[in-house]
Amino acid sequence: MRRSPERAERLRRARPAPALVHRAVRVTAAACAGFYTFRYGLDRPASATYALFAAVALGVLARVEGSARTRARTILWTLPAAWALVCLGTVLAVHSWAAALGMVGVGFAVSYGSVGGPRMVGLANGLQLLYILPCFPPYSPDTLPQRLLGVTAGLLLLAAAELLLWPEPAPPDYRGRLSRAALALAELADLAADACAGRATAPGAVTSAADRARARLDELRFSRVPVMERPAGAGAVDRALTHCAAALRYTGPQVLRILRLARPYPGAARLTAVTAQALRAAAAGLPRAGPVPDTGVLDRELADFDTARAALPGSDRTDRTDRTDRTDRTDPTDPTDPTDPTDPAGRVRPALGTAALDSAEGARFVVRAVRVGRHAALPPDETPADQRPGPFWYAYDPAPLLWWRRFRANLTPRSVAFRNALRTAGALGAARLLAGGLDLSHGFWVLLATLTLMRTSAADTRTTLRPALVGTALGAAATAAVLLAVGEHPLVYALALPPVMLIAFTAGPALGPAWGQGLFTLVVALVFTQLAPASWRLAEARVVNVAAGAAIGLLAGLCAWPRGGAQDLRRRTAGLLEDSADAVRETVAVLTGTGHPGGALRRARNSTLLTEAMYAQYRCERHDPAGDGPNWQAAVLAGQHAVRGAEPLLARIPPGTAAPHRGGARALLGHADQVAAAFRRQAAALRAREPAGAAHPAVARARAALVAELDGPPPAPGTDGRVPLHAVDVAVWLAGLLDDLQQIHEPG
Fold first, then answer.
1. In this predicted model, what pLDDT tens digit does every residue of 593-606 receive, in sequence order?
2. 608 and 576 in contact (C-beta within 8 Å)?
3. Residue 387: φ, ψ to 5°
């Protein structure tokens, strides 16, 4: 009988990967070795129990990723935390209310620790179990040494298994993604340099290079990266890698803009070629063993280009005599000359020069971020005192201060981590009170079910609940049948435990929660029948406890976050756009000398981080793609580009010099007001839940006015003969932001 393609695909997906089988073997070997040694070799049941569950906690419930050495090192680093949790649970088990209060505190602290990065996210469930297990009766502090001995043995055996049993190589990390994206952008920048130099390129080369660059940049988005690979830690290295990704995403559109505006412009060609070299150096320096890149050549080329651009006839930083002398000295054959030798007026399209400058500035940010990620020296912070902190502020602060700032910044109801921690703490505390108040046998199963089945929305929890309960019921039926058939013969259960555990830890992750809960029910039954005589009522207690824990998880989802992250993402994204509007208006006011820094850019930067975390949470949930609403990713990018575009402008243009003429300053402020109004209009549309569709007419009109100004002839000199080129730089940034806003209206 021929299989249908759909069935073949389901079978292919259900087939466990070799890495999953290897991990199941390691956990089974460590758990069984510790359990059998203490249970039958040393006759210490308490140590046997804790050795087995310690290995299961860190090997199955937790997610420890990386190479074999990295996983073993992470497991060993958790030993002090494991000892503290076991001691705390043992002491607080004296009363149900004390254990419940301790569960609330531990639940919040461990869950909130996820703001420290993916490693804490992966370890959270495993660490919770190390408190849950000892906080239940019997209250026997005299067995604490045996419990600590068992936990220590279990974790040491698991670390040894990671190193000795099928040690896995290090998986591809985020640095590799960044390196590939930088190389793709370097290739595109080479083509842009050729276009500005007047050299022909092969048909389709630009299109294929642009597609590769877009694909590589798309791989950098956290929604495309597994949780454990994301550089989301509080330290300087992770922050630098995140900053590097944002700078690359900012540089990509600038290089594409050069290609769109390309015309013979030797100065821009040379600067863009150096930009490509800097991107290649950054790509080579991203691996930890690669050469550390430097910005020396790019800094000099940027300074030379900006100086030569300012010396153009009629530029805004030369007087009439300098312009006359410069025109007389211009050599059309000089490859460093920024003028167009084919243009008799000696003028070039200002937007092309601006795009070349912006792409070079983006590449410089990339290189500096790589240097921070490699712990290389950086020059002193050049950001003016009234504009600090600068973009690389974290490179100058000690690590403890960075961690403290991360934890403090997330102590707000707007933080995903804070709200998840509150929900987890409340649910686990309620589960502990229920288990203690009803005196449920093996009550820790209630908390374990709450911990493993609770999701960030009631819909997700409900979707997981049905197969979990069905699997538990079937597993309990199988357990009851085994207990009735075998009776009190511990040797049979001892022989059956390793293969059943191996199958459970392999099939559960591969086949879903129904298989996982059903097989785990059989595993725990085989364990507890070796510790004390048990009847078929052990299976009944398992079903009751799992059902109670699942119900508490569902209620927690209903009370704390009934709709998941969708509504909060809408509010948070609207807030990001409003903060970006303030940052745009303030940045232009500072550059034109009509205002002073007021912290709007810093607020927009913090808002961007919170929105990115909310978006990552949203992408982890189940939801109907038809109800996704607008293009959330484009909205987040609009906020990122507002911040990343303002930073190089503030670094390159001295305050008050963007538009030296009063009329030019008024014009720039008018454009900034239009862009800020467009940001606020989009924020209001998000709050009002307007459907995705064509861009609002106000956004389209503002963009059309800016594009017409940029694509037209160079701006005319003012009354003093100066052309405000920096005003063009600001206008190009504003036009790019309007491009981003237009994409929000398109369905994601």
1. 777 777 888 888 88
2. yes
3. -115, 5
